[in-house]
Amino acid sequence: MSRAALLSGSLFALAAGLMWGLVFVGPLLLPEYPAALQSFGRYLAFGLIAVPLAWLDRATLRQLGRADWIEALKLALVGNIVYYLFLASSIQRAGGPLPTMIIGTLPVVIAITSNLRDAERDGRLAWGKLAPSLLLIGAGIGCVNHAEITALRADPQADIGRYAIGALLAVGAVACWTWYPLRNADWLRAHPDRNPRSWATAQGVATLPLALAGYALWWGWSAWRAEPFAMPFGPRPAAFIGLMFAIGLFASWLGTLCWNEASQRLPTTVAGQLIVFETLSALAYAFMLRGRAPEPLTVLGIALLVAGVAWALRARPQPLAAQVHAA
Fold it and tell me: Phi/psi of residue 105, each to 5°?
């Protein structure tokens, strides 16, 4: 891994994190909209955005075989629709910061999983070198979680059960997004000659029929149950459509493109830790919506997260053969 690849990959990961942080805004701005409708709406917009992009990339997309499209469908279902369904449901029940920080465990979970899973391909980071960055990130997450839980206990109107369910849903989102970047990196590293932009577009195309079917099923379910919710676009159609397309363009397509670029340049163990940029961005957006600065303990937690990422970038995975020889 050259210095140029490390720098460019890190910048692409930062750009992806800034845009992915936007997905935490939607459920807070549209609290009256069901999480399922927001998930299907976001990815329906993503799929529609991908259609003209697919036409421009049609020559490259023709190179994808049946197995590639099946993989794109799997990634679209788990990493897009199911993930955001869990996340939006979690945010609506627990607010912004708590789910954000549970999602913030992704760098730790992905780094450990990748170090166990992908050592033959990417090399292995010695646990002694990986531990300081993981401890810093874990401590930062703990600080922010402690600040949020303290505020929750001080609120007499807080619904602890609702927050607990929100936390469990966030854990489900973590599981989905531990699986997604590992499988996505597998495909990208196995196809270094393929354009990451085209692969992002392919996932958008694969998402479209899934989101369309989900949206139609939700509409039919609402009609059958005689739900008072105004379908197809809810009580604020302009806000809903505008936000879904904004998130679909920036977070779904452009964010995926930037992450694909990072994944081709960085070992999965390092790239996984850079998902912390999404956590930092989402926290910043959440506190901007609250209209107040974070607590000192939260600031300390954010500083520890940044320090953990900086430490992680100093480590270099070593081929297993080299480690065996050194031993």
Answer: -75, -10
- The kind and range of the H/E element at 141 are helix 127-154
Q: If pLDDT is split at 50, 70 and 90, which confidence band does 324 have?
A: very low
Q: 82: pLDDT confidence band, cut at 50, 70 and 90?
A: very high
- Find the helix or strand (DSSP H, E) in which 324 lies: helix 320-326
Query: Any idea of the CA torsion for 257, 5, 132, 105, to the nearest 10 degrees?
Result: 0
Report the amino acid identity of residue 151.
Answer: A
Centre a 10 Å sphere on the Cβ of residue 322 and count the other Cβ atoms it contains. 11
DSSP SS3 for 176 = helix
> Token digits for 295?
């607590």
Of residues 251, 212, 241, 260, the one with CA closest to residue 72:
260
Q: Give dist(CA 325, CA 81) in Å, integer.
A: 45
Round to whole Å and give the CA distance between 280 and 99. Answer: 12
- Tokens coding 259: 């992450």
Q: How many other CB atoms sit within 10 Å of the CB of residue 238?
A: 8
Going by C-alpha positions, the residue among 183, 160, 163, 171 that lies closest to residue 104 is: 171
CB contact at 8 A, 248 and 196: no
Task: State the alpha helices, DSSP H only, in 155-195.
Answer: 160-190
pLDDT tens for 246-264 read 998 898 888 878 988 888 8
Contact of 164 with 91, CB cutoff 8 Å: no
Q: What pTM does this model have?
A: 0.80
Q: What would the pLDDT profile of 283-300 be if each residue is shown by its tens digit?
A: 888 888 878 788 888 889
